[in-house]
Automatic annotation (TrEMBL):
One of its GO terms (biological process) is ubiquitin-dependent protein catabolic process. GO terms for cellular component: Cul4A-RING E3 ubiquitin ligase complex. InterPro entries: TRPC4AP. GO terms for molecular function: phosphatase binding. This is Transient receptor potential cation channel, subfamily C, member 4 associated protein a.
Length: 724
């Protein structure tokens, strides 16, 4: 049978493995048999990785299949778990045997479908695996296997179930802690978080109704924060310096090549060897690196690996910090990151490691999908930018991104403009800000201007800078960035650079909106740059090509125009109002109506997502400002006339009515969203609520109620979409 089925003697070897591993065995024979089995399985695993990770269905892996079929996987699990199952005195399995058991299990996981899932279903085994992490010799194999298992596990594990988690984490050295972060990232992230913007708000609201208690990911985040010294160690890991070999010209290429090699997790033994070598020769950091160029590549490998390691570790650490910054414990995390000087530490690494001069960025544009399969250099940059975005967003700690001199500059701007300093700026602890000639925000602006037009870094860079401006509008913050040429740079990208990436353009429109909102100097600068009709038309074409992407900018222009029109005693404002092509364009009522028609038309309740709900809020801003001036009936009537002209009576207004009912349902239960609306528009939330109530009024004689403009035959108001 063995010959006919080509089992390569695996069933017989397994029988021998079983018999030689009895309770009183000294495991010598067991280890010899396991090594023989391992050599039969590792070739398949190697071919699996070199075949560009073809899915298990496309390839057949008979040896690992046979090994599992005859109970090999179960036998290894039983062997590994023996210490937890019996108290009998017996010879202990040595580290090398444990290591080989773990490697064989990992090979089976990557080659034979179903093995990972069956291991994942055994909570006792998954939790027991963590105990092998206390031993440095078996740490990497264990970490790799756990990561694979958690990736397919249906129910997320609770970190508090891990025996003595706090002691385990405190026993790790920095390298182990960084590797452990890979495992942690699976346990603290909400499932599908990468696609968050694409989920409809209806579905998300329904989900939230069902899940009132904290999710497992949220519980795990709290568990981590309660481990003494955990955040402090992550900050040290994120900001520690790296010894850099600057003597080679093809250094980046070499990094990329070794990254591919590193990604093949079957070279764990080689990695361990390198780790051991590094521990033994830890003095290399201070050695004279100019001699590295003359050392052959094979001897230089550990040095190159060291830098790859450091970058990859930092990616994992920054990811964990980023998730914690966006969680429910945000303020607690913020306080710790400030206290442990994460931002000044990253600032000191910026030029040497994070944005090294020779990094090329002609990679594919990934948009918002941070799970892209790109090199560690690129992942590191994106993760760093995401961290900055989460750190600055609606939080007073954002001023830690500046140095003392730049903070003084902000104070001087406020003084000159005769406006009070922002409270958050006054409260900033000067001992925790960036040091050096430039703060982190200024360094970011410098590299942003050098980036090629369609580079996906631009998207994340713009998001990070925009988050610094978000919240209540600060004139001083805007002027600080305007002085550094940011407005001209954005306009160059939108109008002159030929940028085609929708993601990049959207992030630039949003940033431009935050930079210009209520700032008369910004509109003056805009007019200076957009100084021909041709340029202005290109700008309008870009805005009109996708209103979902540009509507926040449209909202900013409408709000700013409204404020400037009430400041006609100010000579400067009057001058800019009369000269600025953008303000003149938006002042024409037919243009505002055109935007309103399209904003209401491109969304409906079923297609609303976190990404396009802003179109609904922008259309509401237009109508709120009209209501303030007593023009609401005029706008509603214009919507009705538009419907009749398009031969679709009731279409726009019914849709808008449904959208507003959803708006009430969505926003009246959420504190954070309503604060954001109030801060970004400078319109009290009470006025938002009032306007929506007026528009949804049921009195057909009221000139401000939508219902008054829909003829009886075309009404769809009895269809309860939200109920559906």
């Amino acid at each position: 049978l063995d010959k006919r089925a080509k089992w390569h003697g695996i069933p017989v070897l397994l029988q021998e493995l079983y018999e030689s591993s009895h309770l009183n065995s000294d495991y010598t024979r067991t280890h010899i048999v396991l090594k023989e089995l391992s050599s039969l399985l590792s070739m398949e695993a190697m071919s699996f990785v070199t075949e560009d990770r073809k899915t298990a269905q496309e390839s057949t892996f008979p040896n690992t299949y046979t090994f599992d079929l005859f109970g090999g996987v179960d036998l290894l699990v039983e062997l590994l778990m023996r210490p937890s199952l019996t108290t009998l005195q017996k010879p202990k399995m040595n580290d090398d045997l444990v290591k080989d058991c773990l490697s064989v299990l990992y090979n089976c996981c990557i080659c034979t479908e179903g093995v990972t899932k069956s291991l994942a279903s055994r909570d006792d085994f998954v939790l027991f695996l963590f105990t092998f992490m206390t031993n440095k010799k078996t740490f990497l194999q264990t970490a790799t296997l756990i990561e694979d298992i958690l990736g397919v596990k249906k129910e997320m594990i609770q970190l508090e179930w891990i025996p003595n988690l706090s002691g385990l984490v405190q026993s790790f050295d920095q390298q182990q802690l960084a590797n452990f972060c890979r495992i942690l990232s699976v346990t603290i992230s909400e499932p599908d978080v990468g696609n968050d913007d694409k989920h409809t708000l209806l579905a998300k609201n329904a989900q939230q109704k069902r899940n009132t208690s904290p999710s497992r990911a949220e519980v795990n985040q709290v568990t981590l924060l309660n481990i003494p010294g955990f955040i402090e160690r992550l900050c040290k890991l994120a900001t520690r310096k790296v010894s850099e070999a600057t003597g080679t010209s093809n250094f980046l290429q070499e990094l990329e090549e070794w990254y591919t090699w590193l990604d093949n997790t079957l070279v764990l033994d080689a990695l361990m060897q390198i780790a051991t070598d590094e521990a033994e020769h830890s003095s290399t950091e201070s050695s004279d690196e100019s001699t590295l160029a003359t050392i052959p590549l094979r001897h230089r490998l550990p040095q190159s690996m060291k830098i790859v390691h450091e970058i990859m570790y930092k990616v994992e650490v920054l990811y964990v910090l980023c998730v914690l910054l966006m969680g429910r414990q945000r303020n607690q995390v913020h306080k710790m990151l400030a206290e442990f000087r994460l931002i000044p530490g990253l600032n000191n690494l910026f030029e040497k490691l994070i944005w090294r001069k020779y990094t090329t960025s002609n990679h594919v544009v990934h948009g918002q999908n941070e799970n892209c399969d790109c090199s560690p250099e690129i992942s590191f940059k994106i993760q760093f930018l995401r961290l900055l975005q989460s750190f600055s967003d609606h939080h007073e700690n954002k001023y830690l991104l500046l140095n003392a001199q730049e903070l003084n500059e902000l104070s001087a701007i406020s003084l000159k403009a005769n406006i009070p300093e922002v409270e958050a700026l006054v409260n900033t602890d000067r001992s925790l800000v960036c040091d050096g000639k430039k703060g982190l925000l200024t360094r970011l602006l410098t590299v942003m201007k050098r980036e090629p037009p369609d580079s996906s870094f631009r998207f994340w860079q713009a998001r990070a800078v925009e988050s610094f401006l978000r919240g209540a509008t600060s004139y001083a913050d805007q002027m600080f960035l305007l002085k550094r040429g940011l407005l001209e740079h954005i306009l160059f990208c939108i109008i002159d650079s030929g940028c085609k990436s929708r993601d990049v353009l959207q992030s630039y429109f949003d940033l431009l909106g935050e930079l210009m909102k209520f700032n008369i100097d910004a509109f003056k600068r805009f007019n200076k740059y957009v100084n021909t009709e041709e340029k202005f038309q290109v700008f309008l074409t870009q805005i009109n090509s996708s209103l979902v992407d540009s509507n926040m900018l449209v909202r900013c222009i409408v709000l700013s125009l409204d404020r400037f029109e009430s400041q006609t005693e100010d000579v400067k404002v009057v001058e800019v109002l009369s000269e600025c092509c953008l303000l003149s364009y938006m002042a024409r009522v037919e243009n505002r109506l055109s935007f309103l028609f399209r904003l209401v038309n491109i969304i409906n309740v079923q297609t609303l997502t976190q990404e396009n709900v802003s179109c609904l809020n922008t259309s509401l801003v237009v109508l709120m400002l009209a209501r303030r001036r007593g023009k609401l009936p005029f706008y509603l009537n214009a919507l009705r006339e538009k419907e009749y002209a398009e031969k679709y009576p009731g279409c726009l207004l019914n849709n808008f009515h449904n959208l507003l009912r959803f708006w009430q349902h969505h926003y009246l239960n959420k504190d954070k969203d309503s604060t954001c609306l109030e801060n970004s528009s400078c319109i009290p939330f009470s006025f938002w609520k009032e306007t929506v109530s007026v528009l949804l009024g049921e009195d057909r004689t009221c000139p401000c109620a939508i219902i008054s403009y829909i003829d009886e035959p075309y009404m769809e108001l009895d269809r309860d979409l939200l109920g559906d």
